[in-house]
Amino acid sequence: MIRYIIRRILATIPVMGVVALFVFLLLHLTPEDPAAMIAGDLATPAEVARIRIQLGLDGSIVSQFFAWLLRILHGDLGVSIFSGLPVTRMIGQRFEPTLSLALLTMIFSISVAVPMGVWAAWKKGQWIDRAVMALTVASFSLPVFLVGYILIVVVSLHLQLLPVQGFASLGDGVWPFISHLILPTVTLSPVFIAFLARMTRSTVIDVLSQEYILVAHAKGLGTVRILFLHALKNAAIPIVTTIGGGFALVIGGAVVTESVFAIPGLGRLTVDSILHRDYPVIQGITLILSVAYVVLNLAIDLTYTLFDPRVKHQVD
Question: Model pTM greater than 0.70?
Answer without folding.
Answer: yes
